[in-house]
Every structure is written in structure tokens, then in C-alpha cells.
Amino acid sequence: MRGIARLARELGVSTATVSRALNGNPNVNEATRQKVLEAAQRLGYAANQAARSLAQGVTRSVGFMIELDQESTTSTDYFFMGVVEGMQAVLAAHGLDLLVLPCAKSQDNFTFLQRFVSRGAVDGLILAETRRIDRRIDLLKSSGIPFVTLGRSDSGSGYSWIDLDFEGVMATAVERLVRHGHRRIAVTVPSNDANYGAIFAQAYRDNLARHGLGFDEALIFPTRRREDDGDSIVDGILDRPDPATAIILFYEVTAIGIYRRLAERGLEPGRDLSIIGFRGEESVRFLMPQVTCFQMSLQDLGTAAARALLAQMPMTARAFPSGIVQTRVPLSLVPGESDGPVCPREG
Amino acid sequence: MRGIARLARELGVSTATVSRALNGNPNVNEATRQKVLEAAQRLGYAANQAARSLAQGVTRSVGFMIELDQESTTSTDYFFMGVVEGMQAVLAAHGLDLLVLPCAKSQDNFTFLQRFVSRGAVDGLILAETRRIDRRIDLLKSSGIPFVTLGRSDSGSGYSWIDLDFEGVMATAVERLVRHGHRRIAVTVPSNDANYGAIFAQAYRDNLARHGLGFDEALIFPTRRREDDGDSIVDGILDRPDPATAIILFYEVTAIGIYRRLAERGLEPGRDLSIIGFRGEESVRFLMPQVTCFQMSLQDLGTAAARALLAQMPMTARAFPSGIVQTRVPLSLVPGESDGPVCPREG
DNA sequence: ACACCGATTGTAAGCGCTTACAATCGAGGG
DNA sequence: CCCTCGATTGTAAGCGCTTACAATCGGTGT
């Protein structure tokens, strides 16, 4: 005999009583509860997860699905850790376990997710790296499981998401540059198919328009999260009849390559080319002159996501006001010396 | 009626047959199996995880416990994606799900782990960030659950671990420096209580001794994973009667601060101070002169850990040779220009 | 034609826990 | 002293799936 039955026999009570005592059911004599708790503690007993889930129809755990990139870099980790920390804290406070579910880039993320959902392995889900059109969202919506996405998509709107305020960032960046007299502003965007790339690019366009600046396809540079696009970007920006005088970077590491190329050409960041980075990234923190960038709390992003999820889970929903939440987390500008007034071109 | 019963009724067979068909039991008519598979596919059926686990006494999932640091300065955080990728690939190939279990630094990691173990939430565990004396290892050993640690500990020896070959790294580094004529070699070590710090320090001592070099406590600098210890290190090394001429870094980011301080003092990395980093970190890659460092595949580390775990799980053990595995993953030297022959001191 | 056998399927007993419902007990009311 | 009621505990029916064991069926050997 094992599990709860053993405990029950040991104490000379029924399994029902033990179960009640352990689960905080009020219909138990307080003295009995103490006995049970003590015995459980002493024997290191904890209810079997599977049995409990089966009986209750609830797992008390939520999944955070992430995708593993071959090129995984340290600051993906950095991003990840911060966000997870925020989520974990909130969820734990409500008695929920956070299970991070890593999906290999090589396997179909839809199928991956579907397995966890249809097997009822988690009570709720948080998705990262949302695609512009993301079948996973339809899957979750139709399955009825509570979920939240980190990042918007175009797949319908009846669901909660938390995203960075790309629009706000872009507005601030462009305005700052315009105020410095820049009229030709380049931008880098991610070359993958995640939705944030499209949003970033759109915000770029919108803000140029707002300031009456012309849009030039040639000033948009798709980049990956690595520093080695600097050459082509710098050359692409400057070696043209109407060179840009500023650039806004989606991936801040790109600044490294840009700095390097500028140096090779005898130019200086902040003077000959204004540069604004997106998110203060570790590997860029040490560049001189310091990169003007935006900053945010990863933990806050995580807690916001977790709260939005809790608001949808029957178990916890009553503690939260609104059902569906769609939030853009604002970033704050961290002024550096990588941008400044337009430098009059010589020649 | 739901779940397998519904499927069974739909097909006019018993639940037993459906179960068998779905689980690859050979005692099913192939035609029947196809029918079942087809129907399951069509109805999007997947066996309820909890029920299945309860019936089988097995979850088909393994946990990877990581710790979340407020300041994200642990080693796990720039390890994570790569290692998880390796693990996930191996585990998935054996039909196991990888659940990453994040434990807040603020909560007791022993209790955290215990819950998952005693609730039978996973069939196996991988631990990261092993302490020198780690109660978790005793817990896992006594609980009988298969497990592997990423990093050694002093807590007994009857278990599998995978670790970096700190000794090999240190031997190579010291030998390289000695060959360059260095006799006074400093080192940085992590300031936390993870076991790798002690190992690194010990290997340092051993290798000095091997080359007949004296050991000087003053040349050991505890550091965190951030760049700003450079000043105190550089000054501490040089402003003394018998300055060191080389330094080996545990956290490679320290190089950034060191480079900066050296520059301030009009000194040059590689000439005035030889620097060898431990693991090629992204944020250091762009330093000039390039930092001589060591490199490894995080994926390989992950696959090694996963394999070592599989070797202990009854389900998969037969596919693997040895039971207990204790491996040191070697790193390879990536020569840069941050180290070289001792530069004769002027004055 | 009959016992026997392998292939296939059905029956039903759990897996360990929760929980609706029944049972018990002592106290207070009439 | 009997009845009612609240507090507490026990009984037992599942939760959805697996699997030992029994049952069925067509084919074989003799």
C-alpha cells in the first residue's frame, strides 16, 4: 500500500480525511489536520501528480513554449531568464508550476504545441516568438485552453497578448533624430518571420510619415542578431547620392559591426552617423561612445504575461479584473552618445 | 463520454483495443490499428497525460531544473539555450518531453526539487548549477529517481555528472603562458558558491605547482559575471612589487573591464598583460586584440547530459552502454592576440 | 469431426486521488 | 428523553487509461 492510503492507515483515518486535510478543505477537525500534516511532512509524502490531475481534471501547471534557435546566443538566454523569472514569481504565488517547453526549431511548432494541449498536460499556455500568422493561436483559441502570447499576431484578436511597445520606441527614436535635424533615417529589421519585425518596420514607416519624411526602401536593412552586417549597412547607407545620417537598430548588436566599419572609414558614431539601438543589450554596453538605446524590465514583461494568463484561468480569474488583456510594455530611452545633431557633410 | 471511450464507441471496438492500437502493442490487427490511428488523427485525440501516467506509473518526461538569479549572473543563463537544445533533441528522439523547471533564487531549491520528485511529476532529472555540497543530490539518490547533474559536487560519487573540463582548460592555459615565459599568473574565479569555482581554483593551484610556480593568494580575484571588476584587478595585479604578467579569467566578460583599465594606464593587452579567457562569450568577441579563449559546444554538453540520463532510465537504459557516467567535456583553445611572451618591464 | 492453437478482441481490475453522499456522534432544544 | 442539527469522518464512485486474463474465432493436424 502506498501513497495516500499508506498515510491514512498509518494515522487510522480514511483516505478522504487525509485528502481533505492536505487540500485545505474546511470540513476537517483542526487537530486531525495537524496530525495529517505532520505525518505527511515526516514521511515526505506529496500527492501523486498524475492521480491528482486525473481526479481534479486540472494540472496546476502552465507551459511556456519557447523555440530553440540553432544560433542561440547568450542574450536570447538573457532575455529568456528575465522573462521566466517574472512569470515564475507570479505563477508560484498562485500555486502554479511553470513548465518551460522547449521546441526545437527543426520540429513543427504546431504539432509540438498540439501534443501538450490535447494531452491536457498544462492548464494554460504562454507562447513566445509569435508569428505574423500563427496557427498556434487558432489552435489554442479553438481548444479553449487559457493562453497568452508574448507578441502580437494577425491571427484574430480575441485573446490576450503582451508585447513590447515597438510603436512607442520608434516614435521616440524618430522624433529624437528629427529634432537633431535628421531627414534621412535608416533602419534595420529582423530578417526572420516573427511578427515583431513587421511591426517595427510599419512603425518606422508611420513615424517617417508623421514627420513628413520620405520613405526609401533602400534604407531598410534586414539583419540577424549578430554583429557582422556592419559593413554592408554602413556602406549601403553612405555610398549613395543621398546618404542617411542616422539609423535605428532592431538588433543592437549590429552596432558593433557598424562601429567597426565606421572606424575603418575614419568616421565616428554619433557625429558622422547617429545610431539608436533598440534594447540595451549586454554585448553592446561597452561600446564607446555609448549607444543610445531603450530599456525595459524583462521581469515586468514576464509578470504581465503571467497575470494576463491568470486572468483567464477559472482557478484564479476572480482575483483579476479584466479578461482579455492586450498590453504594450513601454521602454524607456537611455541616452548615450551614439546620436546627435546632423554633421554637415564635407565636400 | 470522452477520451478513449468516445473513440472506442465511434469505432465500435473496446477501449482496450484502442489503447493497444495507439501504443504500438503488437496484439492488434493491423487493419484495426489503422482505423484507430485514422480516427484519432481525425478527431484530434491524444491520450490524457494524467490518466496515462497514473495507469503506467510513468510520465515520459524529464525535468531540467535551473535557477533564476535576480541579477542573471549565474552560469546557467548564458548556457541555457544551447544546452537545452542538445538535451531536447536527444530526449525527443526517445519519446521523452523535456520540461524546464525554473526555480527562483529566492526559494529553497531543495524544497522546490523535492516537490517535483515526490509528486512523481517527472521520470528523470537534470540539475544545473551544482553546489559543492548539494543536498539535492542526496535527495535524488535516496529517492531512486534517475538523474544527472551538470557539474560535479562533493556529495558522494554514485551518480552521473557531466562537467566542463576545467582541469584541462587550466592545464592548457597555464602551460601556454609558461611557455611564453610567464611566472606570475593571476586568475579570476566566480564569487558564488557553485562548485565550478572551487574546481577552477584548485586546477589553477595544481597547474602552478606542476610548473614549479609559487602560489600567491593575492593573485586570485573573485568576480561576478560582469565587466566592472577590471580596475581593481588590473591595479591589484600591477601595483605591487612583484606584478603578475598574465591572468586567466573565469568569466570572460571581465576582459572588457581589464582592457579598459589597461588602456587608461597606457598599457596594451597581450603585450603588457597576457589574458586568457575561459569560454568564448559573445560580448567579448569584438574586443581588440581578440581574447585568447576556450570554446565548446553547448549542444554537445546538453546531448551528453541527456544520454547519461537515458542510460539510467529503465525505459531507455538498454540502448546505452554504461550506467553511471562521469564526463568532462573538453574545450578547445581559440588563440587570439590577448596573450604572448612576457614583455620586459621598463624601469 | 474434434481438440488445439495462435491471432485478435473484450472484460474488468486497478493506478492514487478527489468528492458527493451517507453515516456517526454529541450537543442543544423542546 | 427524543429529535434536530452541525461538525466530522467514512464509503465508494469515479477521473481516463493500461493491461492481465478470459473469451472468441478461424484454421490445423490427425
The SSE string of chain A, one letter per element, is HHHHEHEHEHEEHEHEHEHEEHEE
Uncertain runs of chain A: none
Highest CATH level, the class of the largest domain in chain A: Alpha Beta
The CATH homologous superfamily of the largest domain in chain A is called Response regulator
Gist of the model:
The structure is a homodimer of 347-residue chains. Chain A has 347 residues and is α/β, with parallel strands linked by helices.
Q: Features of this protein?
A:
six-stranded mixed sheet, 347 residues, Rossmann fold, six-stranded parallel sheet, DNA-binding, 3 domains, 12 strands, 434 Repressor (Amino-terminal Domain), alpha/beta
Present the secondary structure layout.
The structure is a homodimer.
Chain A: H1 4-11, H2 15-22, H3 30-43, H4 49-56, E1 61-68, H5 74-93, E2 97-104, H6 109-118, E3 124-127, H7 135-143, E4 147-150, E5 160-164, H8 166-179, E6 185-190, H9 195-210, E7 220-223, H10 230-238, E8 246-248, H11 254-264, E9 274-279, E10 292-295, H12 298-310, E11 326-329, E12 332-334
Parallel strand pairs in A: 1-2, 1-3, 3-4, 4-5, 5-11, 6-7, 6-8, 8-9, 9-10
Antiparallel strand pairs in A: 10-12
Helix pairs in contact in A: 1-2, 2-3, 5-12, 6-7, 8-9, 10-11
The structure holds a DNA duplex (30 and 30 nucleotides).
